[in-house]
Write a structure and sequence with these properties.
The structure is a homodimer of 82-residue chains. With 82 residues, the first copy, chain A, is an alpha+beta fold. Chain A contains 2 helices and 3 strands.
Chain lengths: 82, 82
């Protein structure tokens, strides 16, 4: 079994209202040292397949075709044995 | 500067309709090897503070009081130098 650990985040320059809202809340709560917050999606996909190269290829396709919005989001992933 | 890398995920047993929807889509798209998908939040908080113990303490408070829903979500985090 292999697991793809995928991070999908907004591209630089794309407005992140959720991250901004969290940062404003944290500062209001008194955490004055906070300088930036970002919120991303972390997606785990488990495969009943032990061919790392094939799982990498499928994960890239999944990100390009379903998991990430190519207009506004970038992604990175790693594959690990589980 | 320190960065808290926080993962907020649904507790085991809590229904994950978004993860289920993604899994169904992937299987419909032909990825028959997929056995499970989960979707979590990945939150980065950057601090203008280099005291690791203090940043750990603040991050735990933030998770308990704002970032995670204690009824349905669990969290884990790591602190790194940036």
């Amino acid at each position: 079994m292999l697991r793809a650990k995928i991070f999908v985040q907004l591209k630089a320059g794309v407005l992140d209202p959720q991250g901004k809202a969290v940062m404003n809340s944290l500062i209001t709560m008194g955490y004055k040292d906070v300088v930036q917050t970002t919120i991303s999606k972390y997606i785990q996909v488990d495969f009943d397949n032990s061919d790392v190269e094939e799982v990498k290829r499928m994960t890239k396709e999944m990100c390009d075709n379903l998991l990430a919005n190519p207009n506004t989001e970038s992604y990175r992933f790693e594959i690990e044995e589980i």
